[in-house]
Amino acid sequence: MATLDRRTFLKFSTTAIVTGAAVHAADAEEIKPMTEQAENHAIRMPAYVDHSHLVVRDLPMVSAWYQAIMGLSPIEKTASGETLGVAGRPLLTLTTEGNAAIAPHNAPGLFHTAFLVPDRTELGRWLAHIAHNNVPLQGASDHLVSEAIYLGDPEGNGIEVYRDRPREEWNYLQDGMVKMATLPLDLQAIYDEAPKDKWNGMADGTAIGHIHLQVSDIPEANAFFRDVLGLDLMATYPGASFFASGKYHHHIGANIWNSRGAPKRQSNMTGLANYTVRFNDPAKLQAALAALEKLEIPVTRNGDSHSLIDPWGIGLKLEA
After folding, report:
1. Fewest CB within 10 A of the end CB: N or C in the chain?
2. Which of the 8 DSSP states describes residue 144?
3. Does residue 238 fall inside a structural domain?
């Protein structure tokens, strides 16, 4: 497949608002190991999302898809699941349970896991790969701070793949929030600019830039992510809030577009079992733990990991 039909690609660009909100990466540059990433990279902030854990019905099929289409590599296998990642960095765990019930569309849980690629070139290389494999998209948007492409895995778990624009191109408002939008993204241009060499999976430096959740109530989300976890409210949209540390555009998004007023997620549902927020600043972790204790939210400690269930029944791990 040498070229893509512009109309086929651009028809997705107006649908991004129903599939997600923001994106991350950097200008085209030489790929660097994650340990050499810029100081303002998403995972160099005081707190960031480190890992996502999904419960699936067909583990072999879903794992094979993430390897073939998303370019993740196996890192560890257990009796109940697999952990996949990039260049030895764990990003996604897939497990299966015999009694797992398919989560309703409106259940709290995952809206999408967002994979942040190093630059626009790598976004284009991945786009060319999925186009050549006839993978359908759900949307694509220019969010001013990033360029994002949306799709779903075979069991309907939302995915975003994005690159960040350089931080100096972001615009911050007087209230400290970052200016974001949902504009059409020229997928054809991204595809045309990308090298058409052999694609060998996600580039070294790929990380989870953010995770976007379905919750039941936005004021409750603001209270939890801002006042308990200590993240800053960086942007708002009708029915959604976006939180981050270090003035990043967002590490966690929360919306009620499908899930307004929904009951708590049940523990045996497919989809997002838990995700991990890692603190580069241990003091911020201790502050979050103190806030959880004050609210009498149970936390279980296992080594350096602190596990809890959030107000919507979603598992959350806090680590430093």
Report:
1. N
2. S
3. yes
pTM for this model (two decimals): 0.90
Q: What are the pLDDT digits (tens) for 203-262?
A: 999 999 999 999 999 999 999 999 999 999 999 999 999 999 999 999 999 999 999 999
Distance CA 209, CA 53 (A): 15
Residue among 194, 210, 270, 190 nearest 45 (CA): 210
DSSP string over 153-188: -TT--EEEEEEEPPGGG--B-TTSPBP---EE--HH
User: Residue 33 falls within a domain, yes or no?
Assistant: no
Q: What is the count of structural domains for the chain?
A: 1
Give the residue among 280, 319, 209, 255 at the shortest CA–CA distance from 108. 255
For residue 127, the SS3 value is helix
Q: CA nearest 26: which of 151, 205, 231?
A: 205
**Cβ within 8 Å of residue 153, ≥6 positions away:** 62, 65, 66, 159
